[in-house]
Amino acid sequence: MAGIDGFGTAFKRGDGADPEVFTALADVTNVSGPGLSRETIDVTSHDSPDAWMEFIGGLKDGGEVSLDVNYAPANHDDLIADFDDDAPRNYQVVFPDPDTTTWSFAAVMTGFEPEAPYDDKLSATITFKVSGKPTIS
Length: 137
Description:
Blueprint: E1 10-14, E2 22-24, E3 28-32, E4 37-42, E5 55-61, E6 64-70, H1 73-76, H2 80-84, E7 89-94, E8 102-115, E9 123-136
Antiparallel strand pairs: 1-2, 1-7, 3-6, 4-5, 6-9, 7-8, 8-9
């Protein structure tokens, strides 16, 4: 198989109390991330082989998760409470592959940007900063 159709990917929000209870966010049209990255530490010295710079791995960053949604205030405005919350909340991205691969992570909402063009649908972009290590199951 050359690829997997992304249709059916779900973004889920933890209920804030039970770490096993998640609810899918409605009308998600695109999910990006988590965008994992890693710092490097320069360990080059005067005797580095053949004058090549040398590096070791440093701190890792879970990056961001960005959502595009068909914005419906009744479905999404309760999510704005996450923006006011300083503590990370649990979220999941569930992929529609045969194994139902799930990325689970804690994150802080960092952006909620609605858009209301005169000639198109209401939409919004919602951004989360991952806190700690995401897990894949």
